[in-house]
Design goal:
The structure is a single chain. The protein has 424 residues and is of the alpha/beta class. The protein is built from 14 helices and 15 strands. It has two domains: 6-30 and 308-419, Aspartate Aminotransferase, domain 1; 41-304, Aspartate Aminotransferase, domain 2 (3-Layer(aba) Sandwich), CATH 3.40.640. The protein is globular, with a radius of gyration of 22 Å. It binds pyridoxal-5'-phosphate. Residues 91-93, 133, 135-136, 181, 185, 210, 212-213, 233, 244, 379 line the site of pyridoxal-5'-phosphate.
Length: 424
């Protein structure tokens, strides 16, 4: 069980919104609210320790560096990694781009022989899935265009589950990268990571996991998952915006060429050439957002303190209330698995389509009731196309979401078909 008074940790949750209604925040899949420990960590950094990290000889610089590296250790411990396997990036999107661009740079000869194993060319293949957020699709399309490699993808069924029947035909000796999401941001489905990783390893392909919707909501251990790279965003895990991280196996990170070039990431620079630091420094050129990094460390400690198994159990419970409620409303379709048995692999969200009503209109009715949800395609056009719709309405939970929040969503959603005169 999560602490009964947990909501008191989140100052924003006490505010009222449209029509003076109390806020029901069900948009945590887009960005989560922040507990006071995260806000305090950032403020304390600026008020008491602010300095440039890693390059000063004075006390403040030493303290700032300790906080900066301490946060790295905390985020690493949170996902079962070593500190030097965590690279700071702007967000999860930047983390995935770091890997894809690094491979593109290797293919262009940057990084020399040390980076040769990341080179791609015509005849090579990159495999993704039909359920990917654009952040884990577009960078691979670009890499394919840059290198002449071919992009392939695992299809999904009517519920959004990856179809694994043709896995061995899709992921073959030609496959160099298998990139897939851990949890879908539309259906909430947890991917069959073990099956995919085993197949990738059997053919020698690198695995890139999009952990954006899993790391904030369930226990994630990169060693147990046995993946090569994983992307995450702080703002979805109760941390600040503007910061995220890439996990990578150390020996791979030490060989992958950077894609942002500049100071701080280098060993020796001459007018002709440059040698880079080892990971993670080689990827952290330029000044880093230290306060946000410190905030991300605080968020990881806060979630770790709650216990991720407890977090997952809570969010599954909330999602079950929302999903069961949606199933009772005529004219409203749930995207993803339906029913107890099928919903086993789904975590904290319910994404719906109201027949005959545009998602923006659904969102407006909910907003009038003080309920904040996400509407549109959620940066996932291919999956919506697969479901035969252009957009949907997503209610997503986090640690602070209550049963009352879930019921308020169902109650307001049930009024939508009649409001727009489309009830059957
Ligand atoms: N991957 C998934 C599954 C997501 O849900 C998101 C954000 O919605 C992203 C990647 C991109 O995250 P960010 O915008 O923080 O880079």
């Amino acid at each position: 069980m999560l602490p009964a008074n947990l909501r008191e940790d989140f100052p924003l949750l006490t505010r009222t919104v449209r029509n003076g209604k109390p806020l029901v925040y069900l948009d945590s899949g887009a960005t989560a609210q922040k507990p006071r420990v995260v806000l305090d960590a950032e403020r304390d950094f600026y008020e008491a320790h602010n300095a440039a990290v890693q390059r000063g000889a004075h006390l403040l610089a030493e303290e700032a560096t300790e906080l900066f590296e301490g946060a790295r250790a905390d985020v690493a411990a949170f996902v079962g990694a070593q500190a030097e396997e965590i690279v700071w990036t702007e967000n999860a999107t930047a983390a995935i781009n770091l890997v894809a661009s690094g491979m593109g740079n290797a293919s262009a000869g940057i990084g020399g022989d040390e980076s040769a194993r990341f080179r791609l060319g015509p005849g090579d293949e990159i495999c993704v899935t039909e359920t990917e957020h654009h952040a884990n699709l577009v960078p691979w399309q670009a890499l394919a265009t840059r290198t002449g490699a071919t992009l392939r993808w695992l299809p999904v069924d009517d519920e959004g589950r990856m179809i694994l029947d043709d896995l061995d035909q899709l992921v073959t000796e030609r496959t160099r990268v298998l990139a897939f999401t851990h949890v879908s941001n539309v259906t909430g489905l947890i991917s069959p990571v073990q099956t995919l990783v085993e197949r990738a390893k059997a053919v020698g392909a690198f695995t890139v996991l999009d952990g954006c919707q899993s790391v904030p909501h369930l226990p994630v251990d990169v060693r147990a998952l046995d993946i090569d790279f994983m992307a995450m965003s702080a703002h979805k895990m109760l941390g600040p915006t503007g910061i995220g991280a890439l996990y990578g196996r150390k020996e791979l990170l030490d060989a992958l060429p950077p894609s942002i070039f500049g100071g701080g990431a280098v060993k020796v620079v001459t007018m002709e050439e440059t040698s880079w630091q080892e990971a993670p420094m080689r990827f952290e050129a330029g000044s880093q957002p230290v306060a946000q990094i410190v905030g991300m460390g605080a968020a990881a400690r806060y979630l770790g303190g709650l216990g991720m198994a407890e977090v997952e159990a809570h969010e599954r419970h909330i999602a079950a209330i929302m999903r069961e409620g949606v199933a009772q409303i005529p004219g409203v379709r749930l995207l993803g698995p339906i029913g107890d048995e099928n919903a086993r692999d789904v975590i904290g969200l319910a994404t719906v389509v109201v027949d005959g009503v545009h998602p923006h209109d659904v969102g407006q009715v909910l907003d009038d009731a003080g309920i904040a949800v996400r509407v549109g395609h959620h940066c996932n056009q291919p999956l919506h196309r697969r479901f035969g719709v252009t957009g949907s309405t997503r209610a997503s939970a986090h640690v602070y979401t209550t049963e009352d929040d879930a019921r308020a969503f169902i109650e307001a959603l049930a009024t939508v078909p009649a409001f727009f005169g489309v009830s059957s």
